[in-house]
């Protein structure tokens, strides 16, 4: 279903709700049995009747996101405003709740509901969830209620959610997903029956798109089942924490020159590696996994301040969850928490990817790197004595590793 048709559909539902009619965006039986609408809430007291009547979601993202006083929250596809009004109540007078919707009729309904509820800290914006009309790093929490599945460009939606979140911000949505591999025609019939116009993402693909956008600490919890592998679900993720004025995101090809310059500066210290010259970008990317690569950058200038990346230790399947990593920080930005933030984000992303062991080697003289790694759970498992000559001097290398306590398929 095209975006224009979806907007027309929900605009008509908004007009029905404003006129006092009961609405549903799927069959009545599916709506009731699937716990769509207001059925997932337990705190609707004092909300306008029209806001409750216009609820078309598949969960309670306000509860999922664990909103706190003073936070700024954005609801993607806010409809009649029920989740915005509940969010405004949770974040309090010092917080802010934004609702974003592409339907002018839904926005008009939501604004009337907010006025009736006296929600002075609620604001409704006109726009699409693929192009959010808010600045970078302007909200603490992104929520949504059974709307992302309506988008034909879900990667763009998740990228926009990541963009507008501040470092450390949370993503907590209710959505429709698929799991398993049932008959595609039957699955499509279920999606149509429950109003999933653009098709639901498989759980694995949802996780992949979240990770590609830069999110970490990924959790997708299936809730109500609708048949043939289609489920309502709670989807939770977080944007990496970062020092003030910085942000962590996936590494891109246009970071090449800055990443390699930082690499070379680290090699020039004589304490980072036996290597003395940074490789070409082609060599860099060929030697490292295509995922699990991140940079920290200055949000004011865009300058890359540090990077972290991973390599496989072996092509043998038994070592699929074992990687080796490198982390480098610009020499003018050390002792500012950038290395710690990068490594913390890398560990979290590794756990999401099923990594159970992260390894590396550190020169024995590199006390700062050793202290950083030990602070984040790495341990020294051995020393390779006089393993190689560096600038004419025999060097010892400490072997360090970190075992994930969270990955289920890690070895005993």
TrEMBL record:
Q: Which InterPro entries match?
A: Arsenite_MeTrfase-like, GNAT_dom, Methyltranfer_dom
User: A single Gene Ontology molecular function, please?
Assistant: acyltransferase activity
Residues in N-acetyltransferase domain copies: 246-400
Keyword Acyltransferase found: yes
Q: Record's superkingdom?
A: Bacteria
PROSITE patterns listed in its UniProt record? GNAT (PS51186)
Query: Which keywords fit this entry according to its UniProt record?
Result: Acyltransferase, S-adenosyl-L-methionine, Transferase
Q: What CDD domains does the database record attribute to this sequence? A: AdoMet_MTases, NAT_SF
Q: Its Enzyme Commission number?
A: 2.3.1.-
Q: Which Pfam families match?
A: Acetyltransf_1, Methyltransf_31
Alphabetical list of PANTHER family matching this protein: ARSENITE METHYLTRANSFERASE (PTHR43675:SF8)
Q: What is this protein called?
A: GNAT family N-acetyltransferase
Q: Which organism is it from?
A: Nonomuraea harbinensis
